[in-house]
Design a protein that fits this description.
By secondary structure, this protein is an alpha+beta fold. Helix content is about 20%, strand content about 35%.
Length: about 250
């Protein structure tokens, strides 16, 4: 059993080069509160098995290991992606120029100036451990991503180093693990999600597309959307924010 006090402890392991911080976290030596971080990840993965690779130093990859036991109810695990994204957005906003907008797009993308600057991938390591993988574009964007949809912190005028970001985010994420069962957290997440209240197009895992207006979050962090077929709830998918008559 993981004691509540352990939730606030983070031990950061900087590694010069890794294939994937999530893959490195599979080692049994890493437990709740351990953080693997690197400025040179050569074979990272995003959602839907997308490859995530960058020039060394252009981005930071990190994985925070947490215990399901520490999270409590299995339902709390589904709130993790949003909670992590909101924590990251909050830290970036502290260092961003006042005229630069920092937002979270459901389910877990962090946007700066309307473009993606970070992504999150949560994977199961074993029956108890979860790997919260986070990639942040510091000075460049991952290979193959167009500049009209992706950006970097430096490109948006955000002065935030990996040495500052990694411990701040690790501490925030682990501390937030205390609050995943708090109903007020869901309200805070809903207020922070830029997607709620917007017209959206969702590409579902099976390849189908759904268009509608996002009206809120479900109890597990799912997205509630009013569509032509009525109110529907989605737990996964790629979201595009729409303007009337076109993409945003």
């Amino acid at each position: 059993m993981v004691e509540p006090a352990a939730l606030v402890a983070a031990v950061i392991h900087w590694i010069d080069q890794v294939e994937s911080t999530n893959r490195t976290a599979q080692s049994a030596e890493f437990g709740h509160g351990d953080v693997i971080a690197s400025l040179d990840q050569t074979a990272g993965r995003g959602r839907i098995d997308r490859v995530w690779s960058m020039e060394p130093g252009a981005g930071v990859a990190m994985t925070i290991v947490v215990s399901r036991t520490a999270l409590g109810s299995p339902a709390h695990v589904t709130r993790l992606p949003l909670s992590v994204a909101v924590a990251l957005a909050g830290i970036i906003a502290e260092y961003a120029p006042k005229d630069v907008h920092v937002a979270v797009k459901w389910p877990n993308d962090v946007l700066v100036g309307g473009r993606k600057v970070a992504g999150i991938l949560i994977e199961s390591l074993d029956t108890d451990r979860l790997a919260i993988g986070i990639g942040v574009n510091l000075t460049g964007v991952p290979d193959g991503l167009p500049n009209d949809t992706a950006t970097s912190l430096s490109g948006e005028g955000v002065t935030l180093s990996a040495a500052t970001l990694v411990p701040a985010l690790a501490e925030s994420v682990i501390h937030r693990s205390h609050d995943l069962d708090d109903d007020t957290l869901l309200a805070d997440l809903q207020d922070a999600i830029h997607t709620v209240g917007r017209q959206v197009r969702i590409e579902l895992p099976d390849g189908r597309f759904v268009v509608g207006r996002a009206t809120g979050l479900g109890s597990t962090g799912s997205l509630i959307v009013d569509t032509v077929n009525g109110t529907e709830e989605f737990v996964a998918g790629d979201v595009t924010h729409l303007r009337l008559g076109g993409d945003m």
